[in-house]
Amino acid sequence: MKLPSSRDVARQLGLQRKIVVRAYRLLQDEGWVTAGVGQGTFVSHADSRSRAVGNGHDWTRALRRSARPRPWMNATVAGPGDLIRFTGATADPSTFPADAFRDVLDEVFRTMGASALEYGPTEGVADLRGWVAERLRARGSELNADQVIIVSGSQQGLDLISRLLVAPGDNVLVEEPGYASGFRLFHANGASVHGVPVDEDGLRFDVLADAASRHSPRFLYLMPNFQNPTGISLREARRVELMDLCDRAGLPVVEDQFDSDLYYEGAPPRPLQAMDRGQRVVLLGSFSKILFPGLRLGWLVVPPALVQPVRELKQMADFGSSLLAQHAMVLYCRRGLLERHLEGVRQVYGGRLRAMLDAMDRWFPPEVSWTRPKGGLTLWCTLPPRLSAADLLPRAREAGIDFSPGSLFHPSGGGGNTLRLSYIREPEERIRRGIEIFGALLKSALEREPAGSSGGPMI
Amino acid sequence: MKLPSSRDVARQLGLQRKIVVRAYRLLQDEGWVTAGVGQGTFVSHADSRSRAVGNGHDWTRALRRSARPRPWMNATVAGPGDLIRFTGATADPSTFPADAFRDVLDEVFRTMGASALEYGPTEGVADLRGWVAERLRARGSELNADQVIIVSGSQQGLDLISRLLVAPGDNVLVEEPGYASGFRLFHANGASVHGVPVDEDGLRFDVLADAASRHSPRFLYLMPNFQNPTGISLREARRVELMDLCDRAGLPVVEDQFDSDLYYEGAPPRPLQAMDRGQRVVLLGSFSKILFPGLRLGWLVVPPALVQPVRELKQMADFGSSLLAQHAMVLYCRRGLLERHLEGVRQVYGGRLRAMLDAMDRWFPPEVSWTRPKGGLTLWCTLPPRLSAADLLPRAREAGIDFSPGSLFHPSGGGGNTLRLSYIREPEERIRRGIEIFGALLKSALEREPAGSSGGPMI
Q1: Helical (H) or strand (E) element with A398
Q2: Which residues of A touch B181 (CB under 8 A)?
Q3: Is there a contact between B59 and A306 (Cβ–Cβ < 8 Å)?
Q4: Is B293 in contact with A166 (Cβ distance < 8 A)?
Q5: Domain B95-338 has CATH 3.40.640.10
Q6: Closest chain A C-alpha to B185 CA, distance in angstroms
Q7: Are B98 and B123 spatial neighbours (Cβ–Cβ below 8 Å)?
Q8: Nearest to A305 among B60, B252, B277 (CB)
Q9: Mind telling me how many Å the CA of B318 is from chain A's nearest CA?
Q10: In what helix (H) or strand (E) does residue B454 lie, and over which residues does it extend?
Q11: Nearest Cα residue in chain B from A321
């Protein structure tokens, strides 16, 4: 059958002719119609259609197995934007020092001009690497600035280290509950991810010993300070035991310090890396949580033997992070502006943490327990086992609050009666209101599901 | 044997005591000395030293095989900075519009404030993706902005695509001579790299057919316009044949357009992607060569089936590229400033290319041949087979010029009598002077090694 001319169709439908021409071409490309110059357009025979479609490349089969998604991949969809958000472990933009940062950027342009827009050294700007090293040395680490590599956020640092150390089929140990984007990343690099439980004193090194001998892991990944999601810090005595155990087992440690500067009482925590006697610890840090994420800058501190391999992989991955961003950042840090900013956000976030804990003490039913972090971004709530956080979530959103079900933070399921609450994205007043709402919701859920009930889905 | 106290050593050597304490601690950590509180510091017994050192982690063994370097890894070391540089295929900073870019950055701060410093969408800012799509459509591509993913330079785009499509042991086809950082990247991702020769009309698709059936490659990587290193463009007739062949063989094509906007005559070249009927082409582009590299921004255009996998891997790799940089860039582009800048650099670089070709016509001996690019950054020189470019390099540097030996651009050696000349980093006057020097050098080398000589190393 012959189709009407594109001119006729355009007139009939009140469209521009080029739209119709494009539609015809699309039909032709997909094999639905055939056309010859000056002959018009004809509906295809069925067999030519299937041939044309068979021509399209089968990319699904072309993907590496490890590139295929896992169940936890798409589970973090947030609720509508007008909710009181206890989700999202990212810094509050109302704290971002935009004006101060514009000033340092202007100054970089004034003093460096076009040279700030060139490629930079693969491993990062020397002065920024030096600043990172000095700061860690002040906290007890012994390291040389050569061991610091500037990366595009600590997630990239984690990716580079995984790519160097993990081959498909390898095992990696993580905290459980732990950092879900870490699990995804290790999985994307071909690793099997095994959880080691965290209790109120941090990682259980007694379980670690067993896991280390059972799985022959490539490394242990952990956040020793104000861990995401629980906010728990690894107790000092356990740090010693942990490092001894890793020494004996020859187990490398990847220490993620993404929020270690967000301590709300006492002194800055000492890095695990400072206790490393076997050059076994890789340390990750980032400006994303302590300042803002928009420049994508973080750092990786590696043992001397890994400097060159990491540098070469970073070179392959992106030729180095933004030179302009690094020059602005080191100016900002060297001026003391970061420390001043940190004093401010510690006040703000610390106040929000206290507001949340006070409100939970007041409004949450006694059957519910939670962590009491001394820093970081989030805390962890445990409901009676008969309640499901995932089932509670739609009702919480209806009532005006949002949170993250705890099962997201387990590498292989579990934690159905747990949840994560972030306390840094909302002001204190909204935190108090949200927790009051949440408390009422929990009480009514507990009344509907009295102790001893089956624990089935809550309707 | 007991060591003197740190206080005594500090006084004797005129050092701060904390320096000495740190030195002692280092000796202790490395097992050379032992110390007890209040007892002083003692030289260790030999066996405790070896035990302590044996404790250090063996990272070399821990590295994945593909992370180990290859011969071409460190071969691109440049000569001293005062040479006339025909090396370095990167844009000339004297062209960078630093002031104009500072203005758009200021405007982003004024209009968006802190929100420009947040995390951005993983796949990039919608307006920038739209701009890339519009630009490619104007050149004949049919694509949707959804297929565009903003990356941190086209090298990252190439890395993401390789990681999705290449598993250890796979094969990848490249142009020979071709882009050395591409070879390294594919190798780092576990692939074997196979060259398909390039002649004056571009990739030899007749050889490609054989290579495609012999190696079952995961994809063909090529630069169809102003290829690095030769400056050659794939002739139009070959493009049709190439795409037909890739269709028949089911061979994906990764098209690198890193310098396609640097055309010095005629109209902008049409992307291969515009001829893609099987959704088989992935396209890479970048701001690094056409504007400047300091923000690390580029783009990746993928068939619809790859959008989600690339997005997920980008999310794992770094959570997305800098939001601030993207907002500034799209403002710069939407204002027409990029097109105006391109008009300027095409004049500058085109003039340099003509200056170099004129000088080569005048000064180079007739036994030497070279390409005559119509755009891009570099051209390619072929010496008589008895001359070695690598042997010529030290004498060239002595004489005041620098170039890149051609063997660097071959995946498995060869090309010893070829070399790459970049013409975009030096002003015309220095180009003329450098080519005159080079011509004299070539003539004297040819005199020392008359036709029919053995072709051994030139002393």
Answers
A1: helix A389-399
A2: 315-316, 319
A3: yes
A4: no
A5: yes
A6: 5
A7: no
A8: B60
A9: 5
A10: none
A11: B296
Do A95-337 and A6-56 have the same topology in CATH? no
Which residue from B93, B163, B188 is facing A117, i.e. has the nearest CB?
B93
Distance from CA of A391 to the nearest CA of B (A): 27
The pLDDT, as a whole number, for residue B71 is 43
The closest of A426, A428, A440, A429 to A82, measured between CA atoms, is A426
Low-confidence residues in chain B, pLDDT < 50: 47-54, 71-76, 455-459
Q: Which two tokens stand for residue A84?
A: 């009181």
Nearest beta carbon to residue A279 from set B56, B114, B305: B56
Which residues touch A230 (CB under 8 Å, ≥6 apart)?
A177, A198, A371, A373, A378, A379, A380, A420
Minimum CA–CA partner of B88 in chain A: A119
> Which of B57, B67, B94 has the CB atom closest to A278's CB atom?
B57
Query: How do strand A369-370 and strand A33-36 relate by DSSP bridges?
Result: unpaired
DSSP H helices, B14-153, are 17-29, 46-54, 59-62, 98-112, 126-137
B6-57: in CATH 1.10.10: yes
Record: fold of A95-337: Aspartate Aminotransferase; domain 2 (3.40.640)
The pLDDT tens digits of the residues spanning B68-102 come to 555 444 444 556 668 999 998 999 999 999 999 99
Please provide the DSSP assignment of B140-188 as one string.
Answer: T----GGGEEEESSHHHHHHHHHHHH--TT-EEEEEES--HHHHHHHHH
Please count the residue pairs, one from chain A and one from chain B, whose beta carbons lie less than 8 angstroms apart: 235
Interchain CB distance below 8 Å, A322 and B295: yes
Q: Are A72 and A180 in contact (CB under 8 A)?
A: yes
Q: Pick the residue from chain B with its C-alpha nearest to A187.
A: B316
- Tracing tokens 């060239």 back to the chain, one arrives at B396
CATH 3.40.50.150 holds for A82-94+339-448: no
Report ipTM for this prediction.
Answer: 0.85
Structure tokens belonging to residue A340: 């001043």
* Residue A114 sits at the chain B interface (C-beta within 8 Å): yes
Burial of B450 (0-12, 13-18, 19+ CB in 10 A): exposed
Helix, strand, coil percentages for chain B (3-state, nearest 5): 50, 15, 35
Nearest Cα residue in chain A from B27: A277
Q: Topology of domain A6-56, per CATH?
A: Arc Repressor Mutant, subunit A (1.10.10)
What are the pLDDT tens digits along chain A (459 aa)? 788 888 888 887 878 888 888 888 878 766 678 887 677 888 876 544 444 444 577 877 777 755 555 544 444 455 666 899 999 899 999 999 999 999 999 999 999 999 999 999 999 999 999 999 999 999 999 999 999 999 999 999 999 999 999 988 899 999 999 999 999 999 988 899 999 999 999 999 889 999 999 999 999 999 999 999 999 999 999 999 999 999 999 999 999 999 999 999 989 999 999 999 889 999 999 999 999 999 999 999 999 999 999 999 999 999 999 999 999 999 999 999 999 999 999 999 999 999 999 999 999 999 999 999 999 999 999 999 999 999 999 999 999 999 999 999 999 989 999 999 999 999 999 999 999 999 999 999 999 988 776 544 443
Q: Give the global pTM.
A: 0.85
Is A166 in the B-facing interface, judged by CB distances under 8 Å?
A: yes
Residue ranges covered by each domain of chain B = 6-57, 83-94+339-448, 95-338
Does B64 contact A167 at a Cβ distance shorter than 8 Å?
yes
CB contact under 8 A, A63 and B94: no
**From the CB of residue B171, how many other CB atoms can be counted at a distance below 10 Å?**
18
Angle at which helix A98-112 crosses helix A323-334, to 10 degrees, equals: 110
Nearest Cα to A110, choosing from B419, B109, B103?
B103
Q: Is A153 on the interface with B (CB under 8 A)?
A: yes
Please give the CATH topology (third level) of the domain spanning B83-94+339-448: Aspartate Aminotransferase, domain 1 (3.90.1150)
